[in-house]
Amino acid sequence: MSLVEKVRGTDRVDAEDLSRRLEALTRFLRLVDPYLPDSELVTAHTVVERASGRLTLSLEHTVVALVGSTGSGKSSLFNALARFKLSPVGVRRPTTGTAHAVVWGPLEPASRLLDWVGVLPRQRFVRESALDGDDEAALRGLVLLDLPDFDSVEQAHQLEVDRLLGLVDQIVWVVDPQKYGDRILHRAYISQFNTHAGVTIVVLNQADRLTTADTETVLTDLRRLVDEDGLTGAPVLASSAKQPGMLGDLRNALETTVAGRQAALRRLAADLDAASEELAAMMGPPAAEDEVDRATVRQLTETLAASAGVPAVADAAAAAYRHRAAAATGWPLVRGLRRLRPDPLRKLHLGEPVKTDAVSTDVVPRTSLPEADAAQKSAVGLSVRAVAARAAAPLPEVWAPALNAAARSRDGDLPDALDRAIGTTDLGTDHQPAWWRVAGVAQWVLLATATTGLIWLLLGYVMSALGLSEIGGPEVGSVPLSTVLLLGGLFAGLLVWLLLKPLVEIGGRRARRRAEQRLRAAITDVGRGYVVAPVREVLNAYAQAREALGVVRSE
């Protein structure tokens, strides 16, 4: 049985269960308030405020309001039920400008409740007295209100009716045989309380003007209209202020309500039902925090990487590898000249933490990468919106603005975060392969060989010129050994570099791939932290709010 059906039926409303539902609604509002428009949550906030206020007041009293249009005779009915002339009745309309209240039993225990409802002290009356004996005992605890006409020409009266309708525990709609089918009454009022059948009574007043047969006909038609308003099961009674015998059904209904001490709880339960039905339209199917799939994150990473200059840094990493490999394995005589050329990575100010003068903390300076151009910024914007759109796909449309705002919430910090990620990522280019050292030693050995041959050859020429000896010495075939050492060392060094060059190119490509992979991982972390994480916070709030709403609806 649904909650609405329970309210409409005779099942009792458990106060603890009602409090649990109210707490769940409060939790729901706390979760969704930062993300959903205030205009969509007004009803729920009003319910929480009113229910919290009503539960702190006396549940031993039941506030019943007589509501009707001009000429319906509700003030006369009010006086007839009280058996005193307490509310003014007259030909001039509107007669009732402010709510009047009559309390069965002591007034003092009901004073705080009447203060909360907003009935002025001078409009409060006590019905029961010592002269009544036990005649009114069955209604002890009833607080009966006579409200202004809801169709009054005075707008203040209409506003007062609307205010009080949100506060009372039970509503008695008073209609007359002429205007019981009034469209304003049914569309603007009765139908708006379609979840409140359990705390609604519809009274056909002035039934003394009709014959018995006509009364039954009108009651049948009125019951049909009430059913169409959504209040199936709400009592539809006939009464007359002029015929005390025709007040029996209404009085019995009020006595039953007062005895049950359930009207206040049922009213609040019905309010929660109405609010939860309105909120249900804002909640769709379950949405996990990882609703943003890998493909969407990958697309975001691609655009962020392009915007941050990852391709340029990866190219610089490859160039730096080749530069450092040549400096370590190239011909020793030209290594110094190569070292005079700036390192491609150093030109971008990557991996160069500096220390401030005041403290010893390392500070990462900005890289010298160029700022993203308009096309790259536009691509990033599209990818960020794609993340929000993907997350919003299974959710009701009302959540789309919140998700879009969350995805873009850290746009201003994103460029610096990307630059910082590029500048602090270890590209793995500082490691020197072992073969660099082997090749470097080999180059020095070959240089030493060529130098030995050159010195030997020069020494032979000098000695020959001085007539100390003739040019000669050991030969390899017909070539002097000194010449072989000189030319062999030079050509061997060149050959070693030519043989190593393909290895350097391969290493450069590997360095590029390694740097790109590490940079993309860092960029992915930035994208997840600055774009995806805020979106997931909204999705998490949605999931928790959906769970809370399930408690409100007792699903």
Q: What does the main sheet amount to? A: 7 strands, mixed
Quaternary organisation of the protein chains: single chain
Work out the helicity level.
55-70%
Overall shape: rod-shaped
Distance between the termini: 11 Å
* Strand order, largest beta sheet: 3-2-4-1-5-6-7
Radius of gyration: 45 Å
Which series of helices and strands comes N to C? Answer: HHHEHEHEEHEHEHEHHHHHHEEHHHHEEH
The secondary structure category is alpha/beta
What is the mean predicted local confidence, pLDDT? 83
Low-confidence stretches: 1-9, 90-94, 353-362
The number of E-state strands comes to 11
Count helical runs: 19
Residue fraction in strands? 5-15%
Layout of secondary structure:
Blueprint: H1 3-8, H2 15-32, H3 42-55, E1 62-68, H4 74-82, E2 100-103, H5 108-117, E3 124-126, E4 142-146, H6 155-165, E5 170-175, H7 183-189, E6 200-204, H8 212-228, E7 236-238, H9 248-260, H10 263-280, H11 294-308, H12 310-329, H13 332-339, H14 344-347, E8 354-355, E9 362-363, H15 374-392, H16 400-407, H17 414-424, H18 434-465, E10 475-476, E11 479-480, H19 481-552
Helix pairs in contact: 2-3, 2-10, 2-19, 3-10, 11-15, 11-19, 12-13, 12-19, 15-16, 15-19, 16-19, 17-19, 18-19
